[in-house]
Specification:
Elements lengths: L2 H12 L3 H8 L1 H4 L9 H11 L2 H12 L6 H22 L4 E3 L2 E3 L1 H17 L3 H4 L6 H24 L4 E10 L9 E10 L6 H24 L1 H4 L7 E2 L2 E2 L1 H4 L3 H8 L20 H21 L4 H5 L4 H24 L5 H24 L9 H30 L3 H28 L15
Antiparallel strand pairs: 1-2, 3-4, 5-6
Helix pairs in contact: 1-9, 1-10, 2-9, 2-10, 4-7, 4-19, 5-7, 5-19, 6-7, 6-10, 9-16, 14-17, 14-18, 14-19, 16-18, 17-18
């Protein structure tokens, strides 16, 4: 097992979603300086789902023209595009154009579409590429994917994004000439702390991270020590070499799944035949569900669930949730339990915790225990356990599908995007159109 290959797989995985994750955490600094204001998150949600045209194209090509799409070339293209788009955002993010008589941040929205296309397409290209490495490096890739959310969050914390100070504002009332006294009322005003470095610097940082991903991908393809870590079965553009397809299935099976007897009858035509069609449907249904919950549904109400307990609880929840993702991947590296029963139990547990978070968001700005320290502690713990359990489920599903072949991993990426899409379509009208959730003033909301 090569430590260098583990490092490169992690850095490669980091480039999968680092750009969009970085854009989201930078919103508190971007929003006050553009004409769209706080409507920008709604626009971003729509743009990101439009960008699913990328993974749709790749999935259809794998389905109807297997081997025709050069997977390595596509990965080079999208990493390069992400690097350039992030770099250009550093110069043009607040440039506006008049569209229909109204100023719009056209450059920001267009470049965000390209970043979204890059990150969405990575789900159906980066993950299948790991078939060219030994199975243990898949978990390392998932750790890198978790770091793609953690690293921008940590840099944003250093930058000072979203830090609010409550200051006193005084308004004099009932002043009369006959008295020397006046009744004064004091109102707290929210004042956002200025950032330690600029938005431009943050986008240049994201561009540098994409460049690191590009270098890691180059080394994964050409470094001699990585070449020695390739498994016996080789894939070219997603199709197994002909010299390997001549081997009997019974001979391949022990290499793919050491826990299954080589002569066991195939349960279905899916992959290696290890799972029945009912089990395959069960696995993909859970995959879509956990990605819908963890990628779009619950994160879309994070501010509503956390801010009532204070800014410290909000920032701790966001940061520790970002830490929980790679932590779950790290745990899965040593305890890759493939039990479908455990997968279901963890999904139910994570969904229950997500329901608690959603319930507190619905009750915002006055959820349960809002004036108690225990309320904030429970919310932080809820976010940690929510991301930890569902991230572990996602990794285990990836490990299972990796053994079923390249096409299974392509389908895995497509279902991840489908789940995220369904979650976004469900939550967008509730949050942005019907205003189902209410936010309070960070300094003046009073709850009984």
């Amino acid at each position: 097992m090569s430590l260098l290959t583990h490092l490169l797989a992690c850095l490669f995985g980091m480039g999968s979603w680092v750009s969009i994750n970085g854009l989201w955490v930078e919103l508190p600094l971007i929003v006050p300086q553009i004409p769209e204001g706080w409507l920008l998150p709604s626009y971003l949600s729509v743009i990101i789902q439009m960008a699913n045209i990328g993974p749709l194209f790749v999935t259809l090509m794998h389905r109807f023209r297997p081997g025709a799409l050069n997977e390595t070339a596509v990965i080079y293209l999208i990493i390069g595009l992400g690097t350039v788009a992030s770099f250009l955002l550093g110069f043009f993010w607040k440039e506006t154009m008049v569209v229909g008589g109204v100023p719009r941040s056209v450059a920001l929205l267009v470049l965000t579409f390209f970043l979204s296309a890059v990150d969405c397409t990575s789900s159906v290209t980066f993950l299948p590429f790991t078939m060219r490495l030994k199975p243990q490096y898949l978990t390392t890739y998932y750790i890198g994917e978790g770091v793609s959310g953690l690293l921008p969050a940590l840099v944003a914390l250093i930058q000072g994004v979203g830090v609010v100070n409550c200051i006193n504002g005084t308004q004099s009332l009932n002043y009369t000439l006959n008295t020397s006294n006046s009744a004064s009322s004091f109102e707290l005003k929210a004042e956002y702390q200025s950032a330690n470095f600029s938005v431009e610097g943050f986008f240049f940082f994201l561009s540098a991270m994409m460049l690191v991903c590009l270098v890691a991908f180059l080394l994964l393809n050409y470094h001699p020590s990585v070449a020695r870590e390739h498994p016996n079965s080789r894939y070219t553009n997603g199709v197994k070499d002909k010299s390997q397809t001549k081997k009997k299935w019974a001979e391949q099976k022990p290499m793919m799944d050491p826990y299954r007897a080589p002569n066991l009858k195939r349960k279905s035509s899916f992959g290696t035949g290890s799972y029945s069609w009912i089990q395959v449907f069960y696995i993909f249904a859970i995959l879509a569900w956990v990605n819908a919950l963890s990628n779009t549904v619950v994160p879309s109400v994070q501010s509503y669930s956390c801010l009532p307990y204070g800014n410290k609880a909000f920032h701790l929840s966001a940061t520790m949730a970002a830490v929980s993702n790679p932590l779950a991947c790290f745990i899965a590296m040593f305890f890759p339990i493939r039990s479908l029963l455990l997968m279901g139990a963890l999904t139910v547990t994570g969904s229950g915790i997500g329901a608690y978070i959603m319930g507190m968001a619905v009750m915002s700005p006055c959820p349960l225990l809002v004036n108690e320290t225990s309320g904030g502690v429970l919310m932080v713990l809820a976010w940690i356990l929510f991301i930890l359990t569902l991230s572990y489920v996602k990794v285990i599903i990836g490990v299972i599908l990796r053994d079923e072949g390249h096409s299974a991993l392509v389908l895995c990426g497509a279902v991840v995007q489908l789940g995220s899409l369904l979650g976004a379509v469900t939550m967008f009208p509730l949050v942005s159109v019907y205003s189902f959730f209410s936010s309070g003033d960070p300094c003046n909301t009073k709850c009984p």
